[in-house]
Amino acid sequence: MYKNGLTYFSSAFFVLIAHAAMLLNVFANGNYASSSDVIILSAAVIGVDLLYFIVLLFCKQMSYTIEFLLIFILNMSVIFQSGFGEVHLSVKHLITCIVALAACRAGHVLCRSHKWIQEQRKYIYIAIGVLVLAILFLTGSRSMWIQIGSFSLQPSEFIKPLLVLACATSVMEQQRKHKILCFNIVYENMILLGIIILICGLQWWCRDLGSLPTFVGIYVCGLFFRLCYPRAKLSKKVIIGGAAVLLVLAVLAIKFAPGYVQDRLFVDIWNDSSGNGYQQTKALIAIAEGGWFGKGPGKGFLHNVFAHETDIVFSAVCEEWGLLYALMMIFAILLMLAVPLINPPRSYFHSTMAAGICVAFIVQMALNIFGSCNMIPFTGVTIPFISQGGSSMVTSGFMIGMLSAAQSPVFKKPKSKKKNTALTQNKEVSA
Q1: Which of 112, 132, 173, 356 would you call most buried, defined as having the most Cβ atoms within 10 angstroms of its Cβ?
Q2: In this predicted model, what pLDDT tens digit does every residue of 199-232 receive, in sequence order?
Q3: What is the DSSP letter of 250?
Q4: Would you list the DSSP string of 3-43?
Q5: CA distance 430 to 312
Q6: What angle do helix axes 348-372 and 390-407 make, rounded to 10 degrees?
Q7: Which alpha helices (H) appear in 299-389, and where do they start and end?
């Protein structure tokens, strides 16, 4: 039973009704060759719903709110992805969604105990180093992808949860300062600064700066929590000086950015609609033509444009399902991220971890949506859980599991006073 009065089964029923209503819309307004395509899609979505609800019954935890919102969003995305161009089950996306659900459970189990994670800090740093080396030596010529036959892997995606954990596990170390020359230094802060500089350099070397704001957002969020940690005193001059340095670096980064980045920053998409502005112009036209209620599943044109299922998926959903559905999709993700604000985590570690995850998702969504709407330069990043992608989907699922762990943490029970008293008496007698 939930503390707010909602039962487990009524929440599951709500998710089923929501998905059933979407599938009914597909059947009534969709573009499909045969009704069997809709039946297969419906069976897959409802079947995964029911199976996941049964699995959750065996997972004892304080709250299931995040898990219910996750399955709601994932199967919503399966319905969206199965309708672009023509309605048929997107088997690949369905499989990645199931893997994301499994990754969520793994993230929940691994991150519930802050003490255990704290002990694994050095292995987190090692894992980040291994992934960086994999990008440098296994991806080919300045690429972010490892290609294994028809299967591709993006190691940089797996760095995101590791960076969040690195920031969260370094918080307690703020009280351990070491004096070097005239400065009080925390070694973990220097390590994290080196990691973010390494990631920035790696993104530039691979000519893939789209994910850079997400990594920077995680680092800045972790830095803020470290500064706010009790006894982690830092003078205002240092804070102002650091902010000034970041501002100067941002200006220099824009000025000396590679040519392709400069083109995206200053392109007039309507005057270059067949070049650098092609995707954005088509995306804006699709949003306008979709209106509030959309053309209908499978009846859009944007599926003919490259990366419609990933980089401009927001526009593809707007075209076929309408702006109302697209806003509901974004609202559901934001609601899932807002749960830690409704039920605050009970440790500073879990608060830092939850905040880093929320920042990563919000920055990533903002880059995709605002880029598709031409409000900011087009970056080519994906919307978590909605866009297709194996590495991104698994990582996002794991990070939601971390968020869920912040709501159901594990703390070791202190030893009872009776036992401690008995041990003391035995020691006195033996002495």
Answers
A1: 356
A2: 888 887 777 777 888 998 999 888 888 777 665 5
A3: H
A4: TTS--HHHHHHHHHHHHHHHHHHHHHH---S-HHHHHHHHH
A5: 74
A6: 140
A7: 313-321, 323-342, 348-372
